[in-house]
Amino acid sequence: MTTPASTRHLVLVGLMGAGKSTVGAACAERLHRPLLDTDHLVETAAGRSVREIFDAEGEAGFRALERDAVERAADGDPAVIACGGGVAVDPANRAVLRDRGFVVWLDAPVDALADRASRAPGVRPLLAVGDPVATLERLADERHDAYAGIAHVRIDTADRSVAAVTDLVLEALGA
Ligand code: S3P
Q1: Using a CB cutoff of 8 Å and minimum separation of 24, what contacts does 21-26 make?
Q2: 175 CA distance to ligand 1 centroid (A)?
Q3: Of 41, 102, 133, 158, whose Cβ has the fewest other Cβ atoms within 10 Å?
Q4: What is the helix (H) or strand (E) element at residue 104, kind and residue range?
């Protein structure tokens, strides 16, 4: 079942560094909708940072909190939902977000993603160990089908400004 466009969330998915939070903020402003960032929802609910949660409970603990955050976001009024990079891996997350949202996959070559992610060092536990480019290459491979399966549209953000990507997202949404 799909919900009518006017009541749908705008959902942004993609790997770390794809620009979900910055483009999400710009889209939220243009659409006069709240921005719900799943990492922030998790952190607020847990009273801890993503990194602290990974340290204390591992990735599995973080994913459980993330699933709850996605459910809460999807249940609310139409919003812009900027998803953490791993949200789309979970089939339940994919089902609810695709059903209640218009889902945009923000994509870019891994060296561009690594470059952007390096601007916020220490924030992303999955990039804390090993070579970030190699990790992002592996994740891009592993997650390709999950992103392709949830997304209504894929937009390449490489060499595009936040404003240009925002225009493309809103055009795809029909806003
Ligand atoms: C993750 C992405 C992060 C955050 C966590 C795990 C991932 O969010 O949820 O560090 O698995 O790709 P961003 O994509 O917003 O960096």
Answers
A1: 21/82, 22/162, 23/82, 23/106, 23/157, 23/162, 23/165, 23/166, 23/169, 24/80, 24/81, 24/82, 25/82, 26/162, 26/163, 26/166
A2: 27
A3: 158
A4: strand 101-107
Quickly count: other Cβ atoms within 10 Å of residue 112's Cβ: 18
Instruction: Residue 19: name the closest of 93, 133, 99, 107 by CA.
Output: 107
Task: Give the tokens for residue 121.
Answer: 């060092």
Please state whether beta strands 80-82 and 35-37 pair in parallel, antiparallel, or not at all (unpaired): parallel
The number of angstroms, rounded, from the C-alpha of 30 to the middle of its chain's C-alpha atoms is 19
Q: Which two tokens stand for residue 67?
A: 């699933």
Q: Which residue puts its alpha carbon closest to atom 2 of ligand 1?
A: 85
Q: How far apart are CA 147 and CA 125, in angstroms?
A: 21
CA pair distance 89, 66, nearest whole angstrom: 11
Ligand 1 centre from 87 Cα, in Å? 8
Position 3 pLDDT exceeds 70: no
pLDDT at 93 over 80: yes
Q: Count CB atoms within 10 A of the CB of residue 19.
A: 25
Q: What percent of the chain stands above pLDDT 70? A: 97
- The pTM score is 0.95
Angle at 130 between CA 81 and CA 127, to 5 degrees: 15
